[in-house]
Amino acid sequence: MKKLLLSTIILLASLLTANAQIIEPKETPQLEFALQLKVTLGETYRVGETQHGERIVIPITGGTFEGPGIKGTIINGGADYQLVKKAQHRTELEAIYSIRTDDGVYIHVRNRGIIYDGKDAQGNPSFYFKAAPQFEAPADSRYAWLNNALFVCAPDFSQQFKGIILNVWRVK
pTM surpassing 0.70? Predict the structure, then answer.
């Protein structure tokens, strides 16, 4: 009985070790520029410290967007809901808003991301700000391609533009 148990353990260990090897990926995802959003913002307000962290809300008041084959305005009324976790130097964000293309199509946007302002593995200052927008476009519109892909975005800041600029790429 002990030999059977020992043999089973050895067999399981060898299977787990074999599965632990990384199989070289056949393909590396590529990024394709999709659009740039220039988002205007209202006055930030603080809800305060909650059970999840400090809640901050940044109203989205408008703006514009443009990319290959898509252009329009950002609708007033959305917001960026941020959850600040000071001890971890981390902010979780979730911006929810809508955009309207120049030909009158409304698209809903939900953009979730992370801001990290701490130190890297070597102890050097590190700033990270990336997000993953999800789009909900009408399935029968020329913008339905937004529904069927993953996207990533990164901010740009400009002295000439009072707001936030988000560059968005489609993961191919």
Answer: yes
Burial class (CB in 10 A: 0-12, 13-18, 19+), 22: exposed
3-state secondary structure of 4: helix
Q: What pLDDT score does 21 carry?
A: 87
With 90 as the cut, is the pLDDT of residue 125 above it?
A: no
Hey, what are 122's tokens?
Answer: 């070597």
Do the bridges between strand 150-156 and strand 78-85 make them parallel or antiparallel, or are there none, so unpaired? Answer: unpaired
Distance of alpha carbon 143 from alpha carbon 70, whole angstroms = 8
Give the C-alpha separation, 77 to 40, whole Å: 11
Closest of 160, 44, 166, 26 to residue 109, by C-alpha: 166
3-state DSSP call for residue 140?
Answer: coil
Q: What is the dihedral of CA 134, 138, 142, 143, to 10 degrees?
A: -10
Q: What is the dihedral of CA 101, 103, 105, 109, to 10 degrees?
A: -10
